[in-house]
Specification:
Shape: globular
CATH class of one domain: Alpha Beta
Strand content: 25-35%
Largest sheet: 6 strands, mixed
Radius of gyration: 19 Å
Order of helices and strands: HEEHEHEEEHEEEE
Helix content: 25-40%
Strand order of the largest sheet: 5-4-3-6-7-8
CATH topology of one domain: Rossmann fold
Bound molecules: inosinic acid, magnesium ion
CATH architecture of one domain: 3-Layer(aba) Sandwich
Structural class: alpha/beta
């Protein structure tokens, strides 16, 4: 699903005479009231929890169909993917599925550092197993490439990736994920596991940095 940054337009002068403009004004005002600030930056609602739940459910149907006759090990990439992975893992409802975790870090503030640090390694043997990497977001693709390289050393039977979000215009290396929830423009977002220096992971909706 492709998500664009929504633009609510209204004209102050015409606002009182046109019901459509008035409705837009009310919608804009309600949105402003829902804004959140972190480190002096303002973020506005972008993807609501209901939309997220709908995409998680759709992804789960696809994954369930593709792994119906195979055992699969979900590999959640910490920290960002932990909320998505928990929702997706339950929604897939695959009897023989397992989940394990790995931890990478590539972002400082709102920028990719361009290099990926592995903070916590694999704790399970994935040799000859089907691995489904669960990511929150694919941005430059650097983390995904490093991860796939690392996994290949252990000779898994198959490796696929599911990412809740994907910024295709930011991809500089590798390929996009096999399963994608939302394709979004190259803007900084947070909430539903995604953070700004550790903050905002607990927001149930996703927010985007407000343009000045
Ligand atoms: P990549 O290696 O550039 O693809 O970045 C992947 C990681 O950067 C993701 O797993 C996130 O943890 C983080 N990241 C990328 N874009 C954003 C964003 O818009 N908000 C918060 N974190 C992000
Ligand atoms: Mg991440």
């Amino acid at each position: 699903m492709r998500v664009e940054t929504s633009v609510l337009q209204f004209n102050y002068r015409e606002m009182l005479y046109s019901p459509r403009n008035f409705a837009n004004f009310v919608a804009y005002f309600l949105k402003v009231m829902e804004e959140v600030t972190y480190q002096g930056l303002t973020f506005e609602p972008y993807i609501r929890r209901e939309e997220i739940a709908k995409q998680v459910h759709r992804l789960a149907q696809d994954i369930k169909r593709d792994y119906a006759n195979e055992k699969v090990m979900f590999l959640c990439v910490l920290n960002g993917a932990f909320i998505f992975a928990a929702d997706l893992f339950r929604a897939c409802d695959l009897r023989d599925a397992e989940i394990t975790f790995i931890r990478f870090k590539s972002y400082e503030g709102m920028e990719s550092t361009g290099s990926v640090k592995q903070i916590m390694g694999l704790t399970e043997d994935i040799t000859d197993r089907n691995v489904l990497i669960v990511e929150d977001i694919i941005d430059s693709g650097v983390t995904a490439v490093q991860l796939r390289k690392e996994l290949a050393k252990h000779n898994p039977k198959s490796v696929k990736m599911v990412s809740l979000l994907f910024k295709p215009e930011s991809l500089t290396v590798g390929q996009g994920p096999e399963y994608v929830g939302f394709e979004i423009p190259s803007k900084f977002i947070l909430g539903y596991g995604l953070d700004l220096d550790g903050l905002a992971r607990n927001l149930p909706d996703i927010y985007v940095l407000k343009e000045k």
